[in-house]
């Protein structure tokens, strides 16, 4: 029986729900009355989202045909929001294979529409001259359009929204550098678009007529150079006027390292972003408005998009960030103490201290760790480790936090990822820094048999080969300073905050 979507919501599958756009699209679809299923490699990473109990989450990977087929069963509209932008030299082949699998399985499942968010490509530029990132995005769009399933491809340039990689790159470059020596691409014309307008287009695309199978350009109402965007950002943010001096010598590779040095965006992500700015990316049609369902809306201008994004940042209401997505190549193995883990060396560093504070006061310190609050131990050592990580292509320390006070499973936390959180009791972080092995850091608040609050801390390392063994023994002499200092300072901070709290009752 054909599904009637005129009176009830559609059945939507969202891939990439752990990413920046996908994590924001799900609640928008739910608000529009649709039923949502999310496909995620690690479903637990979605459990703490405010909308988690209203959406179905299934485990799977877009490169696995069987899991894609299961996820697409009974689906009306499939949102394809994944790409391997920073997964190394083979990302184009990974993108191609995943798109072919998804296209075939969507056709077999009888999906009525595929909706895909892609990149805006410059007109008149041969595909072989595009950056690898844009070339791959164009190929994926073509595969989906040729799938036999009616497909909507939305092509956007720079997305302006709190937490987007493009916005954070713009924000940190402008805020940290009152005088900038910049690459020549600061003169490239760009048509930025507010994330709210992207989401509106994605939601509205679900109900496009079945005879629509094409790509649409999606942009805001203004065309600006990157230089103009930085100057306009400074004005909206209340900063003094920036001095920008372009030079022709910064290649895309050097540009990405320059961006990685100044901003939280690592070079692996900055490179495809800066490579895409070599060419003018401006919309050449505005047909999307005629095809969207729902009430018409005027596109948000650049200044208003920046104001809204900054308001979210300042109010700590950033729902998703560019770092919400997993770091390609980051470990997904089980914790070595899990029952299904088999063999190998496992090194650990245990610390436990009594704390003169309530478990609640201690937990507030634990959950607030990282970002602007730091790591309570030898700041220079952490800064050096973060800098070394970025030098070898890692994420470094500057990813910070999504929220200054609250964490949820899947959040990035500097060069860690929140793997597990039991509110008031346990925080487990998985390392995403470049290491010759796998590493975890656990912090917990417990009450002992005498009713005293105790802080428990455990660092675990599972080495890979001789290099991993050598790494552990080379850094172990510093554990007393780094991990011991962390435990003492966290305990001291909890006691201090409890003493300042008028509701504080001294521990027995």
UniProtKB/TrEMBL annotation:
CDD domains: SDR_a2. Transmembrane segments: none annotated. Residues 16-157 form the NAD(P)-binding domain. Pfam families: DUF2867, NAD_binding_10. Gene3D superfamilies: NAD(P)-binding Rossmann-like Domain. PANTHER family: NADH DEHYDROGENASE [UBIQUINONE] 1 ALPHA SUBCOMPLEX SUBUNIT 9, MITOCHONDRIAL (PTHR12126:SF11), NADH-UBIQUINONE OXIDOREDUCTASE 39 KDA SUBUNIT-RELATED (PTHR12126). This is SDR family oxidoreductase. It comes from Streptomyces doebereineriae.
